[in-house]
Write a structure and sequence with these properties.
This protein is mostly helical and 68 residues long. 60% of the residues lie in helices and 9% in strands. Strands 1-2 form a two-stranded antiparallel sheet. Helix 1 crosses helix 2. The longest helix is centred in the middle third of the chain and has 27 residues.
Amino acid sequence: MTDAKIARINELARKARTLEGLTAEETAEQAALRREYAAAFRTSLQSQLDNTWVVEPDGTKHRLPKRD
């Protein structure tokens, strides 16, 4: 997700809160951008969790268990 797309999400959110509101095309664009942002967030979080290790008090390390 690029900074330009995040800026566009924020721009559409600000416009939606005004009296003018969003057009149908802008509403669809906003929904698509939000879906893309959420997918990128989930991918980033999953990557971070995949690289997380738990260190036990005895010094042993193991990865977090994966959930379905």
